[in-house]
Fold:
Amino acid sequence: MLKFDAIIIGSGQGGNPLARKLAKKGWKTALIEQRYLGGTCINDGCTPTKAMIASAKVANTVFHSKFWGIHSHGLSADLPAIISRKNNIVEDFREGTLKGLLDDQVKVFMGAAVFSGPHTIQVTGHQGESDVLSAEHIFINTGSRPHIPDIPGLKEVPYLTSTTLLEEVVIPKDLLILGGSYIALEMGQLFQRLGSNVTVIESAPQLVNKEDPDVAAVIKKMLESENMQIYTGTQATRISRSGKLINVDIVTGTTREILTGTHILVATGRTPNTADLQLQHTQVLLDEKGFIQVNDRLETSAPGIYALGDVKGGPAFTHISYNDHLVIYKNLFENANLSIQTRQVPYCMFTDPQLGRIGMTETEAMNNNIPVKVAHLPMDRVARAIETGQTRGFMKALVHPQTDKILGVTILGPEGGEIMSILQMAMLGDITASQIRDMVFAHPLYAEALNNLFMSLEK
Structure:
C-alpha cells in the first residue's frame, strides 16, 4: 500500500491547483485521473468549444462581410482544419497541466479509482496494473458527463454528445439537438454557422429556462435570425432510424410532428461521475441524482473526504470548481472559515452575442417580493455596438430602490461577459448604481454604455 497525505481523484480545474498547493505545503500528494489530464474544461468543455466557436465567428463574419463594406468571394468551412487547431490547443493545455503537477512533485496515477475502504483507494491502470493508495485527506473532483434521457429509441440511434460532436470531421447536414440551454445553444449556433441546418428541441416553455423571459425571447429571435429552427414547450416522444436518417417524433401542445436529421445531439444536462467510485465503502452520502452531498465548506459526510467541482452539484462552471479549491485550501491552511454560500456566481453563455450573468434575475426578485428598479438599455442604443455593427441584445441591471446597490446584472451583447464582470466587481465593492452612472469610462468602449444604462432609471 502506498501512503500519502492527500489523494485527489480527478484532474479537473479544482483538483489540479489543489494538488499542487498541497504538495508545495509539504504534503505527499497523489492525483488520479482516469481519462485525460485537465478535466472537462480542457478536454470537452471550455477550451475546445471556445476554440471552435472562434472559427464559426470568423465564418459568420466573412459570410456577412458585405455589411461592413467588404466583399468576399466564396466561403467554405474546413472542419478537419478547425478540429486540428482545436486539438493542438487542447494538447498544449494538457501538457502544461502535466508539467505543472510534476514540477510540484505531485505523483500522478493514470487509471480508474475505486474506494476499497474509508480512506483506501485502488487504482487500476490502462494496462491492467494496480496500486492501492491510502490517505487521511481525500478530495473527489471527478466531474460529470452528459445525461442521456430515457426517450424510446434513443439508445438505438448513433446519437452525439457535447464530447463526441467535437470530433466529427464532416459537418452534419441536418443537426437535431435535444435540449435548449447553454451547451445546446452554443453548439447549435457553432454548427449552424459552419453550414449545418440546426433544429433545437426544448421541453421547457422557453430557451435557457433559468433566465428571465425577456432574455430567452431575444436569444430565440437572435438564433432564428440565423435560420436555426427552435421548438420550445416540445417533448421528444420517440426516436428512430430511417436508413441513414434519424427521425424524432415531437409533441408541442396538441400538435404532433416528425423531424428528420442526419445527426442528433443530446444536450439535456449532466450526470455526476460517482457510480463507479464504490462510495458504499465510505460514509459519503449522495443525493437522489447521484451528486455528492457537501456542507458549505465542501466537506462530505465522511471525515477527511471533500468534494469539489461538478460532482457535488450546484453551479456547474469551471470557475466555481477553481474557487472550490481555494475554499478548501484556505480553510485547511489559513483558518479562513470560508463558505460557498456567500460567494458570487457569475457565468456566461458563449453564443454570439454573449450572455453574461451575475446575481439576481428579475423573475427571482418578483418571486421573492424583493423591491427592485430595473435599468435597461438596448444594444442598438450603444455607440460602440452601432459602430461595430453588433447591435443585438440589451443590458439590464436590478437596483435596490433604497440602497442604490446593484443586485443583479444581465448583459446580452458583444463582450457581454466582460461588461458583466465590471458590474460584478462593483457589486463586490458596494459601488452604487449612481456612482457607475457618473463614472468616467474611456470613449467609445462598450463599458461606457453603463453610464446610460443607469441613467435609464431616471426616466
Remarks:
- The mean pLDDT is 97.
- Residues 30 and 275 are 22 Å apart (CA to CA).
- The radius of gyration is 24 Å.
